[in-house]
Design the sequence.
């Protein structure tokens, strides 16, 4: 069983989504977690639209798609809570996605993290140690560690293992509520082995970051890693199944 | 059969590799279905005289005929002519960004004349890693594809193979020249090869894995998962490399 925890389905191109379904089937991927499709600094209207698309995908193919509710923490708290209620409590989404608009150290994230703990759902948060091209307020793994320390009862999936690098793995090592997904950058060798040794395979989840990436190439980094079969199976799907409480 | 045009052997300060002998390297490639590989010295990227590293590499890989050495030459050094005297060279690699010269520098004119007279293809290592993830005190930008276009058109009689190009660069390089080829190691998008083939012809694309920097399986899976007809598949997997490098 393979679960892709990090996917971005194009909201308005069903033809491409059909191709993604076809390609995922050929790659042996049984579940795909859609994190949404939104611009940087999304407005409330854009957030609602992105989440509507994600919920529609899940309704359309509940056997394949799982969805996360995208939020921009810069929005009013009342809107954020309405959206969590609409999409998670009364809707079909199973987690929260936070991107780059607000740094993970910001107190604006606290009510969202508390809601996630209450609802027992994970937050998937972007992170990257960027030498060049850093976006305003973009979080690093050290920022994620700070967030994890403030909210030890909330499960956090830190995106982009390769982009976190060894330094990022060390940042989150002592926070057992932080998981990491394998997406991000080119499939540089050695980092999966390092993360398995430092965190344990049970804290690593396969993610492709499709549509900007390719299932095959991203799976190749897991199949190519020098790890045992059990650890590989945990990374490819068992961990995500447990975390998302899938049947 | 797959011929890999982009592999390296040696040490690199930012990654640890588990292939520490030529035999282990050949075994790794072979287990991924790669029967022959063009290989360069990793040490020659940073060591001040790459010819020393080229000689070491030739000695190291002697017991493994499936590994074909590609010497790295720095045309800015006084000994570059001597480094080109070796017979039977299948290709020569340059690494302009790490060796600190521009492709429009006049020092390349005599170098390219000799290359043309010997009918040796040129490989340009566009980058080693993702610039976003580089060590902060060693930022090496990728080679500017616009300079490669200018350069390749000026020396159009010599085939040029650009290694580790991004997809957008690959499209520009191939469309704006007649003699530039690209490897697939850094090219990635949903359905990588079918997408790429809509923009550039298969006879300009070569299989390259960038092993051991990247997981070998990622490039292999990228190739094998692409639903291509036999002819373009064979061209990319091996026929183009055979033709270009006379293998």
Sequence:
């Amino acid at each position: 069983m393979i679960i892709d925890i990090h996917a971005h389905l194009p909201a308005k191109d069903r033809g491409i989504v059909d191709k993604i379904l076809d390609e995922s089937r050929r790659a042996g991927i049984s579940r795909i977690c859609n994190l949404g499709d939104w611009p940087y600094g999304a407005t409330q209207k854009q957030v609602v639209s992105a989440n509507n698309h994600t919920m529609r995908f899940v309704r359309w193919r509940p056997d394949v798609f799982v969805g996360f509710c995208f939020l921009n923490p810069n929005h009013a708290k009342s809107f954020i809570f309405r959206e969590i209620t609409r999409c998670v409590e009364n809707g079909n989404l199973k987690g929260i996605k936070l991107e780059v608009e607000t740094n993970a150290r910001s107190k604006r994230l606290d009510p969202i993290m508390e809601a996630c703990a209450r609802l027992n759902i994970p937050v998937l948060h972007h992170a990257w140690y960027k030498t060049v091209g850093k976006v305003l307020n973009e979080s690093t793994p050290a920022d994620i560690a700070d967030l994890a320390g403030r909210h030890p009862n909330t499960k956090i999936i830190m995106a982009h293992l390769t982009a976190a690098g060894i330094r990022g793995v060390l940042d989150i090592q002592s926070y057992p509520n932080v998981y990491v997904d394998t997406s991000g950058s080119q499939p540089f060798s050695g980092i999966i082995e390092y993360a398995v040794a430092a965190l344990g395979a049970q804290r690593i989840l396969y993610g492709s970051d499709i549509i900007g990436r390719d299932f095959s190439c991203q799976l190749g980094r897991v199949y190519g890693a020098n790890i045992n079969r059990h650890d590989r199976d945990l990374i490819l799907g068992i961990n995500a199944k447990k975390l998302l409480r899938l049947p | 059969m797959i011929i890999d045009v982009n592999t390296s052997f040696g040490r690199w300060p930012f990654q640890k590799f588990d292939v520490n002998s030529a035999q282990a390297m050949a075994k790794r490639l072979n287990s991924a279905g790669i029967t022959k590989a063009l290989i360069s010295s990793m040490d020659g990227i940073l060591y001040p005289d790459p010819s020393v590293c080229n000689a070491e590499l030739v000695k190291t890989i002697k017991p493994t005929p499936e590994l074909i050495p590609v010497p790295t030459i720095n045309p800015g050094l006084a000994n570059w002519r001597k480094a080109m005297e070796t017979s039977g060279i299948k290709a020569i690699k340059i690494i302009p960004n790490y060796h600190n010269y521009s492709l429009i520098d006049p020092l390349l004119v005599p170098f390219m004349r000799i290359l043309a007279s010997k009918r040796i293809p040129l490989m340009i290592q566009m980058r080693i890693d993702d610039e976003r993830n580089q060590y902060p005190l060693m930022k090496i930008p990728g080679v500017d594809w616009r300079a490669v276009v200018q350069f390749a058109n000026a020396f159009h009689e010599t085939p040029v193979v650009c290694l580790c190009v991004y997809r957008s660069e690959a499209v520009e390089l191939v469309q704006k020249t007649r003699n530039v080829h690209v490897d697939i190691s850094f090219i990635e998008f949903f359905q990588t090869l079918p997408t790429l083939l809509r923009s550039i012809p298969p006879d300009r694309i070569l299989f390259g894995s960038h092993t051991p920097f990247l997981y070998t399986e990622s490039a292999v899976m990228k190739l094998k998962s692409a639903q291509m007809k036999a002819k373009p598949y064979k061209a990319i997997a091996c026929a183009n490399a055979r033709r270009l490098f006379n293998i």
Remarks:
- The mean pLDDT of chain A is 97.
- The longest strand of chain A covers residues 2-7.
